[in-house]
Amino acid sequence: MNESVSQIYVVDDDISVREALARLIKSAGLSVKTFATAQEILAALQNEVPSCLVLDMLLPDINGLELQRQLATRDIQIPIIFLTGHGDIPMSVRAMKAGALNFLTKPFQDEYFLETIRNAITQSTRKEVATFGDIIGQSRACRRVIHQIEIVAPTDATVMILGETGTGKELIAQEIHRRSCRREKPLVRVNCTSIPKDLFESELFGHVRGAFTGAIKDRVGRFEAAAGGTLFLDEIGEISLGLQSKLLRVLQEKCYERVGEDRTRHADVRIVAATNRDLQKEVAAGRFREDLFYRLNVFPIKVAPLKERKEDIPLLATHFVELLAKELGCPKPRLTQAGIETLQGYDWPGNIRELRNIIERAVILSQGGALNFDLPVNGSSVDQIILEPRDGDQAEPEFLTESEMQRRERKNLFTVLQKTGWKIKGTDGAAELLGMNPSTLIYRIEKLGLKRPAPDCLASY
Ligand SMILES: Nc1ncnc2c1ncn2[C@@H]1O[C@H](COP(=O)(O)OP(=O)(O)O)[C@@H](O)[C@H]1O
Ligand SMILES: [Mg+2]
């Protein structure tokens, strides 16, 4: 099962309760682990923190309240759902005072239990969501970048942001500016790729009227426009060697002249640069000045590509679905668990920008229903995939027989049904996961003669 599926821990000393709850939780497409004692769970929590804890108030070793207190002293923050009997009311009140939000008095209805769990998971993801200005993400890589921004922003140090296209370099530059003491002054971006070579100098430093053909009036350059603020040199790896020396001079001497003018002006800007190139390689290849590289590389921030931080995808996707539905004026569509898994199965060569674009297309097409993602096939075109056998130990046969097709369909349906605990309809049902109409699915189950295994077989999944 995918890592991003919410993990629920159940602690109850009664094995039949444990197993019944585990089955119920699995039927909702969630992942579950069960424990009989408080000691067991305390040991498990040292390695992993689940999205939610379902806790019997009366455990044999420590009571639920004491366990809650111990978690708090260890700074483990998880939403807890307490299961209580009718006699435990005073204890429930005390737990509530200690911050517990959820109580279920036995016996309770399955649907109510699942709803409480879903609410608790939402609480826990909200708490975990790292939003830092406009930057969203909770992966270790993202937290490291946020930490670096926090450290470097208030200083005047030159920052070099390195990362593939679409990883959020510009967003980082904005956040650095916003958290610096230059925030009241402008942040000026120069896209080094989009400026024609012969206009670059005038673009950066400005010019006076008549400095060159077409210079019909005085013009302020980007250094001047950013005075007191931040100059963001985007795609810095693209500038020619000639321009690199001009840039080096202004960075070294902190002064420049407008093209066609002798007057020297003081450059009061903080430099943030970004590139998707490996500048050290560029230096080695003689395409980038080493001295300029060292000038710029004072405080490097490396941004990981999205495929190395797929745990950020659910948060980013949720954020973009909300944002884009609002921006596009579309009804808010549903992002299903299957949708998230599809997104996490792709490698995102265009990183977060590509994710945003794919979601935008899906939001437009969804018309308020479930989102379907139409992803390019990783690394090769769709035609290639159809025509060529896949890599692997066994090549795909050229064609499938009727019985092989049926076997595969049975296997596929069975896997999905197992995953949903044979729930067919609803957002967490098998039909939704398969992207199929529930009545079509029921028809196929009957046609293929699929039968739900007896409950005691299910418990061993
Ligand atoms: N961590 C993030 N959280 C939210 N949105 C992000 C994040 N990183 C990138 N984006 C969005 O992805 C898109 C591409 O980001 P951008 O900063 O332009 O990337 P780059 O400059 O590296 O090519 C933008 O729409 C940006 O707002
Ligand atoms: Mg960019």
Integer-rounded radius of gyration:
29 Å
The total count of helices amounts to 20
Structural class: alpha/beta
N-end to C-end Cα span: 12 Å
Dominant shape: elongated
As a percent range, the share of helical residues equals 40-55%
Name every ligand kind in the structure. Answer: adenosine-5'-diphosphate, magnesium ion
**Count of individual beta strands:** 16
Could you list some keywords that capture this structure?
about 450 residues; 20 helices; five-stranded parallel beta sheet; disordered C terminus; about 45% helix; alpha/beta; binds adenosine-5'-diphosphate
Please describe what this structure looks like.
With 461 residues, the chain is α/β, with parallel strands linked by helices. Helix content is 44%, strand content 13%. The strands form 5 sheets. Strands 2-1-3-4-5 form a 5-stranded parallel β-sheet, sandwiched between helices. α13 crosses α15. The longest helix has 19 residues, at 110-128. The protein starts with 6 loop residues before the first strand and ends with a helix. Residues 379-394 and 456-461 have low confidence and may be disordered. Bound molecules: adenosine-5'-diphosphate and magnesium ion (MG). Residues 134-137, 163, 165-171, 316, 352-353, 356 line the site of adenosine-5'-diphosphate (ADP).
